[in-house]
Every structure is written in structure tokens, then in C-alpha cells.
Fold:
Amino acid sequence: MKIYMKKLLFLFTLIVFFISCQQKINLVPSTISLEFYYDSLHLEKKVNAKLNDIDTNALSTVDIKYPVFKDSTLNWINNFIVEKIITSTTFDSVYATTINKFAADFLEHFSQESALGNMYAEWARDINYTAKYLNDSLLQLNFELYEFSGGAHSNTLFETQILNINSKKQLPITDLLNKDNDTLALKKIAIKELHKMKQIKPSQKLDDDAGMFINDATFYLSNNFWYDSANVYFFYNNYEVQCYADGPLEIAIPKTKLKRILKDKFLN
Structure:
């Protein structure tokens, strides 16, 4: 009996030890800090220039604000953001490798154009990059660019990227849909909403009757999309689907019209 009790006690001790070890492992999970802060950069340069036939000191400015993620495992997001910023405009003939160089190159071009007597207005480049979490695994980045470097008007750009933190990839629209071929149904719904926005009948044409660069056959779902609790949005920048004077285009599709298309987790 004593031997049996000793064996039982030994077995019990092993079980407790095993459970204890498992608990210790589970109590120290490999977690990722989702915390981030905003960094900013301001550079400016004055040059002697002739503005409206008057000699003056012309000012060129660059202002950039962007999120920086603290956890080293999210450096891929930081790299994604930097890459987006430094390739966001085709003004520079050679893309810079850092944000500081990207800003400095703009000011240098300003100086060069001024020296050639091509300066008719002050230049500006403003970038505002913001971030917000849709849930623990999806991050929405909003990129806004305003740039004036001479010419008839300024240039603007707005883009949204939804990043999947687990897969380390940008979310395509198909990830929101029940089936990949649901994009065809989504496209048809978007075209109907666009006809309503332009106040033209379904029998009318977007290119002829709404003055757009596209028609029902060439219409496409923009990769520039996002969603909230009520709608799914598709955004088209200047010159993408209509002339500059008409501005950018945003199509908001109510989720109530997408119940058969969207996955349940994206309907709320």
C-alpha cells in the first residue's frame, strides 16, 4: 500500500509539474505591440526669384507627417510607408532612398528652376500619412499628397491601403468577398451607383452623357478602397476616370446592397 501511494504521489507530482510548465509557456506568449507614433519633417528654402516680374525671396516648403511603428516585427510596415512616400510623385527623375533625401531633392529642384528663371510661384509639397486599426489584424493607412511645383494647378493624390498584419500583405478587394468571381457582381452594383451619382439613366453612357474617360465596359474597381460600418468606398484620383476640373471621384456602396457578396465579418 505504501509503495502504491508513493507511486501515486510521484505520478501526481509529474502531472502538476507538466501542467505548471505548460502554464508558464502559455503565460509568456509571443505578442506584437501595435503601438505607433507620428514623426514629422519640415524643410524650407528661400531663393532670389522673379515672381510676377518682381524680384523677391521665393519660399519652397516640404512638410511630411507619417506613422512609425515601435515593434521591430512591424518594420515591414515602416518600410512600406517610407517606400510609398518616396515614390509618391513622378516629379523627381530619380527616386530618393530616404524621406529626408526625398524632401531635399524637391528643394534642390526649386533652386535649379529659380536659377534658370523659370520660377513663377512658390513651391510646396505636403504629405499627411495616417494610420488606424480596423481590428487586431487589419491596419488602414491613409495617404494624402498635395504638391505644387509650377504649372496650371497643383497636384493631389489620395490613397488608402489596408494591410493584413498576419500575412504582411496589402488586402485585395477579393478578401472581402465570399467568392473571387463576386467582383463581377460588385462591379455591376458600383456602375449602378455611379449612374445615380452622375444623374444619368442606365441606358445612357458614362463617357458620352457624363463626360467621363470610361464607359460601362471599361469601368474597373479601383484598388484604392476602404470600408466602414455602413459602406464600401472606391476612390479614383484626378485624371483616372474624369478630367481634373471634375475632381476626384468617390463611389460609396451601401453594405445593405452587398449582403450576398461581402463576407459576414465585413458586413457589420
